[in-house]
Amino acid sequence: MNTPRLEALEGIDDADLEDYFSSTLAIREPIAAGQTVDDMDLPYFDYFLQRMPQLMTFVDLFPTIVQDLFARSIDHPAMRHSILSISTMLATGSQPLDVLPSRHYYHKQKALQLLQSSLGGDPRDLSENDAIAIFLLLWLDVNSGSSMSATLHLRGLYQVLQQVLNNTRESTAGFGGVSALLMLVWRSAYR
Amino acid sequence: MEALLGVPFFQGGPIFPPVSPSEATFHRNWITAASDPNATLAADWAMVKFALDDLAHRAAILARVANKDRKDNPEASTLAPEIMEQFSELLNDLQEWRFQPIVQEAERNEKLAQMGRLPAATIAVPFLNHPPLAIYSQQFVHMMNHWRAIQIYMSLILWPASGPNPPSSGRYQTGVDICRSFASLTTGLSGETWCLTLAGIAFGGDAYYPAESQWMLEKQEAVLEAMRFPIVISVRQMMHFIWNSGMSIWDIFNI
Question: Is the omega angle on the peptide bond into residue B230 within 30 degrees of 0, that is, cis?
Fold first, then answer.
């Protein structure tokens, strides 16, 4: 049975039909910025959403942190890869922890490359999501025991946070121009 | 994570500057917006928790200053008076934290649970031969462990060797209190294992309290393994180095 919308289209030319569909928001799928997500990685997003609430600090008081992080990653490739690097580290079942899966290193490297590219660009383009992606890598390093790398990421995070605050100085949105999620990231890093 | 990594451990001092008490109103605004609207007093608890983090941050900065003073003045038997003054102020603020009404009420509830007059949230499990601890609020008990860990951390500013000495530092009993709590805790363990590390430093390894040290180590490994955190691989080696190297804790962490 045709839907009301398709019934209204009956009898029109193919070319018109094509125009109609190409101009209709309803049939356009959202396209994430950067590389598309590989099918093999999809379960790791689900894992992130299920596992991280048990692992992240402050979830007891701010229960939506993990979902908020995930939502932001949809249009931020560095965040997506940071999330996937965390999930591929945690979802190792009973495998030995001294050898992590190659997929973990792939995503970590991609996240680092994307962040380096952002950091090499105009500082005014640095966003909250860049800072959050660095925070996720910092979280990863701390729990991996990579203290040197963690310290470098902590310093990088602080510098990016400062820049983001500068970038939003004129804004009246949020809290001092930034979101509550970013403030929470800052408190977690400070902790 | 700065206090966790150790503010002093980064050459040049703290990366994140300390939070000024005058910023409290600003923080209250975003905390209220972001905290769980269904949880009673969630914003108040967040403020209490952040206050504890601020104290840990200050302690880490002071540790760096004190260690530099000790190295600059190897002949001195005590730290410089201004450092001791800051230490005393910080210790006072740490004690004051417990006198906040919300903390006092939570402590009362814990005592009532221990007397069996409030239901325990978990099954009380003993830490070695110490009496099992009934827990009313796991969230609050984690905060108290954080508070105790800062106490041990601060005692290391004055006496930077691992182990329970001097006995007047109260380190051993503080470590026992942390482990009694950990024995009965079942949730929220991630990110809190640094409290166990501080308890382990207080126990001092085989030279002082081998059973307590071993329990702490096994507990820490079990928690980290369950979380699938690769840092678990290096925990045993790190603790044995802390216990047996004879080095100042601050030199071990290269502040």
Answer: no
Q: Does the beta-carbon distance from A57 to B190 stay under 8 Å?
A: yes
**Sign of dihedral through CA atoms B168, B58, B5, A142?**
positive
Q: Look at residues B231, B166, B241, B168 and name the one whose alpha carbon lies nearest to residue B200.
A: B241
In chain A, which residue's Cα lies nearest the Cα of B224?
A: A143
Nearest CA in chain A to B45: A61
- CA distances to A41, A54, A140, B80, B205 from A45, rounded to whole Å, are 7, 15, 16, 53, 41
- B176-187 tens-digit pLDDT: 999 999 999 998
Q: What are phi and psi of B195, to 5 degrees?
A: -65, -40
CB contact under 8 A, B26 and A138: no
Asked if this assembly's ipTM is beyond 0.90, the reply is no
Whether residue B166 has a cis bond before it, omega within 30° of 0: yes
pTM: predicted TM-score of the whole model, two decimal places: 0.87
How large is the angle between the packed helices B232-244 and B193-203, nearest 10 degrees?
30
* pLDDT given at position B89: 96
Half-sphere exposure of B80 (CA within 13 A, CB side): 14
